[in-house]
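Hey everyone, long-time lurker, first post.

I ran two proteins through the pipeline my lab uses and got sequence/structure pairs for each. Pasting them in order. The first:
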Amino acid sequence: MLKSLREKNLGILALIIAVFFVGWLEQVEPGGVGITELTFGIFTFNTVVRIGILTIVVVGLNILVGYAGQVSLGQAAFYGIGAYVSAVFTVQAKALGIPEAIASAWIWPWFLMLLGVLITGGFTWLIGRPILRLKGHYLGMATLGLGIMIFILFRENFAIKPSTVIITGGLDGLPDVPRLSIGSYELWPLHRYFYLVWFFAVSAIIIGRNVVNSRVGRAMRAIHGSEIAAEVMGVDTAKFKLQALVMSTMMASLAGSLYAHFQAAVSPTPFDFVASLELVVMSATGGVGTIWGAPLGVTIILGLGEFLRANLHFLGAGSEVEPIVFGLILILIMIFMPEGIAKQITKLFNRRKSNQQTPEVSA
């Protein structure tokens, strides 16, 4: 049992070491080599921070889709709720009548991050009960419609004329979102924010692992396998499906707040339908049925996107070729590794380990 526990924690330890190594590499740049030079220009330090933020979103999505078996095509909208709660109540604090003493306090943005998580969780809990009665494609269409509706509210300033009051800023969004700080210690420049983002990303992975290995996780897997069989065995399917949905959207909201303070601005585009599809692709590429598929899938898709943009333009190909190449690569992944890359790596590792432990039979 202790050996199994050590093996499970080995991945977390390796990730923490990798995070500190990347942070050290970017700060010190030994021999003039940073993360950009080490990855031949595919990854920048900015990209690594984005990987951490999106990892939080995809961990929640993997719990919902990969373990509870519930489809979501509108996850970017919940990501946007967190971002806009943080942006609106900091940038528009004076217009909303929030006292200057409160709005200027260093703890105010942290409180808004928590508020965004609670608002998202409460909203999801209310709309989740009727939506989760749907199954399969119908559930996908419902989450898609919900995501588009929230995106339109962001884009159209909640249907309020900007001349009356600016809430979301419409298509222009909201600039000047303040940086996070702890007391007088500002969590910027980027290397400071990098450690904050990856603290939350590693915490999300640990929480996700603990959830899926708990009684709740076993109930979710039972629902994914067969909802009818799970109900026969006494599993409250409606309760556990709602828990998975609420948990996934709360993680997305937290990531959205981190994104808002990272970009120092928000606009509707990163939270549209295309963004939701990209999150699904990240989840599927890494592997929906594993928590470790989240950071792996996000890293592969973001890295692949940067690589294609750089090299296709270098070869003289137009931007319209990029999604074609991108789609072909994803099709190959889905054909040859339908469970995702993380599961495939785990299978290869277990097979090799089994072969090494099997004693040879002498003739």
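...and the second, right after it:
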Amino acid sequence: MPSSPATKPPRQARSRQTLARLLDALESLLADRTFEEISIHEILRTAQVSVGSFYARFPTKDALLPALYDRWDQELRGRAVTKKDQEEARSLSLEGLTARFIGNMVKNQRRRRWFIRAVALHARQHPQMITREQRSKRRQLHRQWASLVLEHRDRINHPDPEEAVALAIFLVVSTCREKVVFSESPHASSFRLSDRKLTAELQRAFLAYLGVTPRQ
């Protein structure tokens, strides 16, 4: 696997601080623009990093993406389901649990749309750069959420509950990403749907696929 800033972080404290400032600057600029619209000079000006310091570590602006992806991966790991999450989840109905999960996902992807778009495109274009550990942690996070849904196994009428829940999570996450993060694409922009409506319909689709009968 090729080396990258994501797999080989800088050893010197000064270099780590410079990298952190560059990533902070890039993330702040991604609040309202795409990665493609942001220039190196804007990043350097915001980070207060010299041109020489930048090119001593990165040959191009795109070379920041592995490190940005690594930051995103670390953030996702911090969202691992805790014991408190499990306790709260057990106090919710299946409808309440899915409404919270899907609602938070839509809100987070809308709030950080351009940041998520940048790291998602990097992962799609350079899948070989994603480490085994990163892939394993991502699968673990999905399994944790699946286990919470499977607490309501008695309401799932699909013949294979485990596989159905895993696929249902994949379907709603993928649909949300396409509709929110990549909404400018032809197929995603072919119809309008508010985030509130998207959340409601994704929940409906999730429960319907599992064969859950709505409670009266």
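Reply from user beta_strand_b:
Welcome! Quick read of the second one: DSSP finds ten helices and no strands in the chain. Residues 72 and 202 are 24 Å apart (CA to CA).
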